[in-house]
Amino acid sequence: MNSANNSLQISHAFLAATGTKIFRYFEDRIPHNGPVLVVSNHRSFMDAPVLMASVKRPIRFACHHYMGQVPVMREIVTGQLGCFPLEAPENRQQGFFQQALKLLQTNQAVGVFPEGTKPMVDFTEPNSLGEFQRGFAHLALRADAGSATVKPVEDLAILPVAIASLAEANSSAVPLRLLSLFDPSEPLFNQNGWHPLVIYHRVGVLIGCPYRITAKERQQYQGKQAKAVVADITGHCQTEIAELLRQGCY
């Protein structure tokens, strides 16, 4: 069994063990082949296996730097689920682009949580959505355009997905200051309190419409409108996920 299929089977086994029931909506929108950039909201450590089980294919998630530093967690997250931890801050952006591009060029699915660490550390309500960081839009545009040394990723689809918790249990995992030992660069860990632990009992997964980079956007990214086109793609995905989340939570 290869590691990709292994991560998918582990996800199914984990969700069966927790008794989590998943309700999928708009499944016909899922691209089952080719390179996909899955973009989703993020509140729980369960989000990665929930998305893999819902999309029905392995997804290589970019995850927080500390997850690659903590013993046991590192083996589960990177070894079993196939996630790739972000590097230390000074190399984080370039490392993310390099690893994600390699995966997309081999027609794999890459997963990103543009809200970052904050909704995982500060407990948020199921229907809330934080501001999206723009790294995934830069990644999609770079992958689509290619470069002198990197060939373009053909037929790349950005897939917005909303995870809407319908019933969950909340508790605490570990003290935040303990995590700062593994990643002192994360300011969110430099506070009192505990890392929330959100366990889904029933969860809705709503699939958005696949988004593909247009020739006009590709051209704009090479010119003065680069920031604007990145903001437009980021805003499009955030708006679509917010609307899907509204449908799923009400």
From TrEMBL:
<keyword id="KW-0012">Acyltransferase</keyword>
<feature type="domain" description="Phospholipid/glycerol acyltransferase">
    <location>
        <begin position="36"/>
        <end position="166"/>
    </location>
</feature>
<dbReference type="GO" id="GO:0006654">
    <property type="term" value="P:phosphatidic acid biosynthetic process"/>
</dbReference>
<dbReference type="Pfam" id="PF01553">
    <property type="entry name" value="Acyltransferase"/>
</dbReference>
<keyword id="KW-0808">Transferase</keyword>
<dbReference type="InterPro" id="IPR002123">
    <property type="entry name" value="Plipid/glycerol_acylTrfase"/>
</dbReference>
<protein>
    <submittedName>
        <fullName>Glycerol acyltransferase</fullName>
    </submittedName>
</protein>
<dbReference type="GO" id="GO:0003841">
    <property type="term" value="F:1-acylglycerol-3-phosphate O-acyltransferase activity"/>
</dbReference>
